[in-house]
Specification:
The chain is mostly helical and 122 residues long. It has a single domain, classed as Helix Hairpins (Orthogonal Bundle), CATH 1.10.287. 80% of the residues lie in helices and 0% in strands. The protein is built from six helices and no strands. Helix 1 packs across helix 6, helix 2 crosses helix 4 and helix 5 runs antiparallel to helix 6. It is elongated. The relative contact order is 0.15.
Length: 122
């Protein structure tokens, strides 16, 4: 049943996935513009930084999934960037990415399961 539902909404999930990729791409570029080269000035062994596109994309993905976002926040607040800009960037990245886009995936899956159960009952 799970595979059947996922296959039935694959086209919708593809559009949501493309939206997520576009979102990560945009926030990666914004993060590189704001924090590029500044994390290494503060802390020499920072795993997540915004120095290159790939490292920045991984950092944004960590923010979207809320994995170790506090570590990124701590280092971002120690940089020479205005703390208001840092907090605005991080909170908007988490809010839009996790609470809107990721929940869009869940809402699509739940709606598909409900409709398949409704059809099954008929």
């Amino acid at each position: 049943m799970l595979a059947k539902v996922i296959v039935s909404i694959a086209d919708k999930l593809l559009y949501i996935f493309l939206l997520l990729v576009l979102y990560i791409f945009i926030y990666t570029l914004i993060g590189m513009t704001i924090f590029g080269g500044k994390f290494s000035e503060v802390h020499s062994t920072v795993r997540m930084n915004f120095d290159s596109f790939l490292e920045s994309a991984f950092s944004v993905f960590n923010l979207v999934t809320i994995v170790l976002w506090t570590d990124i926040l701590k280092v971002a607040l120690r940089t020479s960037v205005n703390p208001a800009i840092s907090i605005t960037y991080l909170i908007s990245c988490i809010f839009i990415g996790d609470f809107i886009i990721m929940n869009l995936v869940l809402a699509t899956l739940i709606g598909a399961f409900n409709s398949s159960l409704f059809e099954k009952e008929k």
